[in-house]
Write a sequence for this structure.
């Protein structure tokens, strides 16, 4: 099995629509939804608006490359992201599909993630 890596920033809001989130950040997202949307292939109805931006690089790239790519995309928008973090749920997530689980972050990466006012999920 080849390793697959997905790194993304997710914003979940009861207050801002998906359009408002995108407008506030000035960024295009990779996935978004609104309250009452049905989640694909499920019976789940969304209770909040959502907005996701991915690293944008191939899933077979190294975790460090994904982190740099996404943190680089978000770097100029940290003030806007911090504003959203005041009342919305922000999650910076790393998903790794591999046969041998091993994950750690260096101090600088963790500082850059927490500087956005977001939680880290692995």
């Amino acid at each position: 099995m080849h390793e697959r890596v997905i790194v993304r920033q997710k914003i979940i809001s009861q207050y801002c629509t998906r359009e408002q989130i995108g407008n506030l950040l000035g960024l295009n997202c990779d996935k978004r939804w609104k309250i009452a949307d049905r989640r694909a292939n499920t019976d789940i109805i969304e209770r909040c608006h959502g907005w996701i931006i991915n690293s944008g690089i191939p899933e077979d790239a190294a975790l460090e490359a994904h982190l740099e790519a996404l943190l680089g995309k978000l770097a100029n928008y940290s003030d806007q992201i911090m504003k959203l973090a005041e009342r919305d749920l922000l999650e910076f997530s790393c998903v790794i599909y591999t046969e041998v689980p091993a994950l750690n972050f260096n101090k600088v990466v963790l500082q850059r993630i927490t500087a956005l006012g977001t939680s880290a999920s692995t």
Summary: The beta strands are 4-13, 31-33, 49-54, 89-97, 119-121.
